[in-house]
Design brief:
By secondary structure, the protein is an alpha/beta fold. Helices cover 47% and strands 10% of the residues. It folds into three domains: 236 residues, TIM Barrel; 68 residues, no CATH class; 61 residues, no CATH class. GO terms for molecular function: flavin adenine dinucleotide binding; tRNA dihydrouridine synthase activity.
Length: 468
C-alpha cells in the first residue's frame, strides 16, 4: 500500500489505458475533470524498444501529466525489460497489459491471451520487478471461476506485482457480447491479496464509483468508455459536449497528436447527437474532416444548433427526435453510452438471420442454386470467388529460403531484393541517414539529393550571371 499512497498519492478515480484514446491531450483533459491517475495507451514493447520515433511519441508528457503509469504489452521478458528500462524515468510505474481481449492481441500473442501461461507471466513480472527502479503493476481479466481468478492474482503478487487492476469480465466478453462486469470477482481478489486492487468495469457515473468501492473493497475504480463519452464523469457533471470538445482541441493544438485520435474523441463526445438521423450530414462531415479548423467548425455548428435548447430559449421535446427516446438526458449533454445486453443482441441476430433466410428463399425460388465441392449451397458471389481461386496458378514448390528470412533490424519479413537485407521501413531509414540508394526497394535518396544539389548549383549560377 506504500506505493499506492506515496508514489501515486492514493488515487481513487482512474482513467484506463486506451489504444488511440488515452494520449496526452485527453489525459490532461481528464485530469481537469477530476481524474487522479492516468495510463498511457497500451504500448508494444518490441516497437518501443527498437523504434526511437515510436518511443518519443509514446512518452509525450508534461508536468501536469502526473502521476502517470506506462503500460506495455508483449510476451518476451527480455524485450519487455529493455522497454521498461527506457520508460522508467518518465513514469511512476510500469504496467503489464494482461487484459486486452481484441483480435490484434490474439494475433500478437499478448494481453488476455497470455492468461493461461502462468510460468511465462511469472517470469515477465518477476524480471521487471527485480530490474526496474519503479514498481510493476498488472491489469487482468477474470477467469470463469472465482477460485481460478484468485489463484491468478496470488501468482502475480508473488511474482512482484505491486498493484493489480481486475476487470470483472472474461476475455470473451467484448463488443456486442460485453455484458456486465461481475464485481464479486474483484471483491474475492481484494480479500485474497495484500497489494492494492483497482476495480474495472461498469463505471458509467459517479454513483457507480461509490457503489463499486462499497461492494468490492477496492482502493480505486478505473473507467474507459465512461470517460470517453463523458470526461466529467468523476465530477458527477454532464456538460454540453461542445465544452470539453473545444477544451480538448486547445490541448491537442498545444500537444499535437494524430488527427485520427481527435476525430475518434469527437465522435464519442457527440455520439448521441450524431445518432439523430437529421444530423447524418454532420456525421459524414466529421468523418471527412482532416484539419483542426474543420473540427472546430463542426463543433461550433453543433453548438449553434443545440445551445438555444440548452439555455432554455427553445423547448426540447425528447420524444420528437428519433434515436433519443431512451436517453435520460438531452442528447447534447455528455453521458454514457449503454450497450444492449448480449441476450438482446443474440436474439436480434437470430431474428435477422431468419428474416433474411425467408426473404432470400422468396426471392430465389426461380433462381439457379449453386453448390461448392462438398455439395453445400452457396451464393453466386461465393461461387464466383471459388472459380477465381481455382484459376490461380500454383505457387512454386521450392520458394527461396530468403523469402522466409527476417529483417536484420526488426521482426518484419526481409525484402526479397533489398541490397542491405532489410525490410522496407528499415531500408528507408538507413538510406535516409547514410545517403544511399536501394534499387530493390526503389529508394533513391542518394540520387535525388545529388539532383537537388545539381539544380541548386545551376540556380546559383544563373543568379550570378544575372547580377553580372
Amino acid at each position: 500500500m506504500d506505493f499506492w499512497r506515496s508514489a501515486l498519492g492514493s488515487p481513487v478515480l482512474i482513467v484506463a489505458p486506451m489504444v488511440d484514446a488515452s494520449e496526452l491531450p485527453w489525459r490532461l483533459l481528464s485530469r481537469r475533470y477530476g481524474a487522479q491517475l492516468c495510463y498511457t495507451p497500451m504500448l508494444h514493447s518490441a516497437m518501443f524498444y527498437k523504434d526511437a520515433k515510436y518511443r518519443k511519441e509514446a512518452l509525450a508528457s508534461c508536468e501536469e501529466d502526473k502521476p502517470l503509469i506506462v503500460q506495455f504489452c508483449g510476451n518476451d521478458p527480455k524485450i519487455m525489460l529493455e522497454a521498461g528500462l527506457l520508460a522508467q524515468d518518465y513514469c511512476c510505474a510500469i504496467d503489464v497489459n494482461l487484459g486486452c481481449p481484441q483480435a490484434i492481441a490474439k494475433r500478437g500473442h499478448y494481453g488476455a491471451f497470455l492468461q493461461d501461461e502462468w510460468p511465462l507471466l511469472y517470469q515477465i513480472v518477476n524480471t521487471l520487478s527485480k530490474n526496474l527502479k519503479v514498481p510493476v503493476t498488472c491489469k487482468v481479466r477474470r477467469f470463469e471461476t472465482v477460485q481460478r481468478t484468485v489463484e491468478y492474482a496470488k501468482m502475480l503478487e508473488s511474482a512482484g506485482c505491486k498493484m493489480l487492476t481486475v476487470h470483472g469480465r472474461t476475455r470473451e466478453q467484448k463488443g456486442p457480447l460485453t455484458g456486465l462486469a461481475d464485481w464479486s470477482y474483484v471483491k474475492a481478489v481484494r480479500e485474497a491479496v495484500k497489494i492494492p486492487v483497482i476495480s474495472n468495469g461498469n463505471i458509467q457515473c459517479m454513483q457507480d464509483v461509490t457503489r463499486c468501492l462499497e461492494e468490492t473493497g477496492a482502493v480505486g475504480v478505473m473507467t474507459a468508455e465512461g470517460n470517453l463519452y463523458n470526461p466529467a464523469i468523476f465530477k458527477s457533471e454532464n456538460p454540453p459536449a461542445w465544452v470539453p470538445a473545444l477544451e480538448y482541441l486547445e490541448l491537442a493544438e498545444k500537444y499535437p497528436c494524430p488527427l485520427s485520435y481527435t476525430r475518434g474523441h469527437l465522435f464519442k463526445l457527440f455520439h448521441h447527437v450524431l445518432s439523430i438521423p437529421s444530423n447524418n450530414h454532420l456525421r459524414v462531415k466529421l468523418g471527412a474532416a482532416n484539419t483542426m479548423e474543420q473540427f472546430k467548425t463542426i463543433i461550433k455548428e453543433l453548438r449553434e444548433m443545440y445551445k438555444p435548447y440548452h439555455e432554455g430559449v427553445k423547448v426540447w421535446v425528447q420524444r420528437t427526435e428519433e434515436g433519443t427516446q431512451n436517453l435520460l438526458l438531452p442528447p447534447w449533454l455528455c453521458q454514457s453510452y449503454v450497450r444492449d445486453t448480449p441476450e438482446n443482441h443474440l436474439r436480434k441476430v437470430e431474428e435477422n438471420r431468419v428474416d433474411c433466410k425467408m426473404r432470400a428463399s422468396n426471392n430465389n425460388e426461380n433462381k439457379r442454386c449453386y453448390e461448392d465441392g462438398e455439395g453445400n449451397r452457396i451464393s453466386r458471389k461465393k461461387m464466383k470467388k471459388l472459380r477465381r481461386i481455382s484459376r490461380r496458378p500454383e505457387k512454386p514448390a521450392n520458394l527461396p529460403e530468403r523469402c522466409m528470412e527476417k529483417c536484420q533490424q526488426c521482426d518484419n519479413p526481409l525484402g526479397s531484393k533489398c541490397m542491405f537485407r532489410l525490410c522496407k521501413k528499415c531500408c528507408k531509414d538507413k538510406c535516409f541517414v547514410e545517403e544511399l540508394d536501394c534499387k530493390g526497394h526503389r529508394i533513391l535518396v542518394k540520387t535525388r539529393r545529388a539532383m537537388a544539389k545539381m539544380y541548386a548549383s545551376q540556380r546559383i549560377g544563373e543568379k550570378v550571371v544575372e547580377v553580372a
